[in-house]
Amino acid sequence: MTKEVSILPIQSVYSINNHMITATVLHEEPLVMKFDQVLNDEECQMFIDSAALRLTKSKLANKEESQIRTSSGMFFEENESPLIIEIENRISNLMHVPISHAEGLQVLHYEPGQEFKEHYDFFGASSPSSHNNRISTLIIYLNEVEEGGETTLPRLGITMKPVKGSAIYFEYFYNNEELNELTLHSGKPVIRGEKWVATQWMRKQRIREGY
Ligand SMILES: O=C(O)CCC(=O)C(=O)O
Ligand SMILES: [Fe+2]
């Protein structure tokens, strides 16, 4: 099989505006990477604090829980604050996709027993969103989970334990659909403690105006 081109050039360190992010390749095709120190402690806390207020509301408004995802979540507005802008820029540089292709950052909160069952992040061919489909994902861990809450890619044998400020990255914009389907993944149930993540999904084409 011929080698396909990945979106991300593989490096062991990415330097973004003097912010150094170290990287480990977990799998090459499809490309799966672990990044360390994507966010510092203060940035993680900012995400948790500002998301927490809004999660409470969305929980009340949406009592019906999804079968696949039992955590609660919220999206930040694009360009919502100077700190969100700085972090969105860092993420866009790291993922090598222009910020105009970035969805709003999503924060998820899991309590014990809550999980995100196996799924793909890209949309199926019958979904209206598939004409401008997602191409890559960055999941940033915002806290340490006492037990459980690992992200797994079962078809690649990858299990990632949440470490505050670190992230898992994978991409699924390959011509060979079989490679894309290897990115099936899940967030395992939290057993003890709680779990906070921020997820960035990138699209193939622009979805933001004004850039
Ligand atoms: O929480 C996790 O580990 C997985 C999150 C996830 O799959 C997503 O946000 O798309
Ligand atoms: Fe996902």
What is the secondary structure topology, with strand pairs?
Layout: E1 13-16, E2 19-27, E3 32-36, H1 41-61, E4 72-75, H2 82-95, E5 106-110, E6 116-119, E7 134-141, E8 147-148, E9 151-153, E10 158-160, E11 167-171, H3 177-181, E12 185-187, E13 190-192, E14 195-203
Antiparallel strand pairs: 1-2, 2-3, 3-11, 4-5, 5-14, 6-12, 7-11, 7-14, 8-13, 9-10, 9-12
The structure holds 2-oxoglutaric acid and fe (ii) ion.
Structural account:
By secondary structure, the protein is of the alpha+beta class. The chain has a single domain, classed as Sandwich (Jelly Rolls). The protein has three helices and 14 strands. It has helices spanning 41-61, 82-95, 177-181; strands at 13-16, 19-27, 32-36, 72-75, 106-110, 116-119, 134-141, 147-148, 151-153, 158-160, 167-171, 185-187, 190-192, 195-203. It has an eight-stranded antiparallel beta sheet. The chain is globular. The structure holds 2-oxoglutaric acid and fe (ii) ion (FE2). 2-oxoglutaric acid binds at residues 108, 116, 121, 137, 139, 151, 185, 187, 197, 199.
